TrEMBL record:
The keyword Transcription applies. GO terms for molecular function: DNA-binding transcription factor activity; transcription cis-regulatory region binding. It holds the Pfam family TetR_N. It comes from the Bacteria. Keywords: DNA-binding, Transcription, Transcription regulation. InterPro entries: DNA-bd_HTH_TetR-type_CS, Homeodomain-like_sf, HTH-type_TetR-like_transc_reg, HTH_TetR, KstR2_TetR_C, Tet_transcr_reg_TetR-rel_C_sf. Residues 18-78 form the HTH tetR-type domain. It comes from Nonomuraea jabiensis. The keyword DNA-binding applies. This is AcrR family transcriptional regulator. Residues 41-60 bind DNA.
């Protein structure tokens, strides 16, 4: 199993009221998504928040630290979901049941952290921070593939599609939400989670000849 990268030590925000560390991070993620990480400067972020550039450094030490925090925000909760589901005999639930639960909760995590997940899906490994995030994504793919393999062994899923391909397709369905899902749109996250789970597992169900 791949060792999870250590999380950065949190810094206590000491800026002006209304511009705590969480607010700075939210603004940074919005800018990174809108302009691109490489094209965004700390000066751009200061302007977005109506602060001076030195004031930004009361909250963070660098643009890369903000990127790392944003990617952790995208990955930490999903990592916890997959880790729990990957434990042998977790809660006495079948691998099939745990796999369905992972898919449902993945939708919930993405909706709750949509901006950060959008940023995560755009990284290409151009820095140590991005490489660490990509390594964590590979770990998630591997663990989900292992869970698919267990569900196949139980006889719950068809065995004619490779487990690694299934895991990528499942996460791909969830990740596609960043392109169109809006919290104030026609579909709430429970409805979307139900639909994705039903469509995915109806297609993956093992059918007797």
């Amino acid at each position: 199993m791949t060792t999870q990268p250590a999380e950065p030590s949190p810094r206590r925000g000491r800026g002006r009221p209304g511009h705590d560390q969480a607010a700075v991070l939210r603004a940074a993620v919005e800018l990174f998504n809108r302009k691109g990480y490489d094209a965004t400067s700390m000066g751009d972020l200061a302007k977005e928040l109506g602060l001076t550039k030195p004031a930004i450094y009361h909250h963070v030490t660098s643009k890369e630290q903000l990127l790392g925090q944003a990617l952790d925000d995208a990955l930490d909760e999903l990592t916890a979901v997959v880790t729990e589901a990957s434990r042998d005999g977790a809660g006495g639930t079948s691998a099939y049941g745990r796999l369905r639960e992972v898919l449902r909760r993945s939708v919930e995590v993405l909706v709750a952290h949509q901006s950060s997940v959008t940023l995560l899906l755009r990284v290409r490994g151009n820095s140590e921070v991005e490489l660490a995030a990509l390594e964590r994504r590979r770990w998630l793919d591997d663990r989900l593939a292992a869970l698919v393999t267990e569900a196949i062994a139980e006889g719950a899923l068809r065995d004619d599609v490779p487990a690694t391909l299934v895991s990528r397709l499942l996460f791909g369905m969830v990740n596609s939400l960043v392109e169109w899902y809006r919290p104030d749109g026609a579909y709430d996250r429970a409805m979307v989670a139900d639909a994705i789970t039903a469509i995915a597992f109806d297609g993956l169900a093992k059918h007797e000849a």
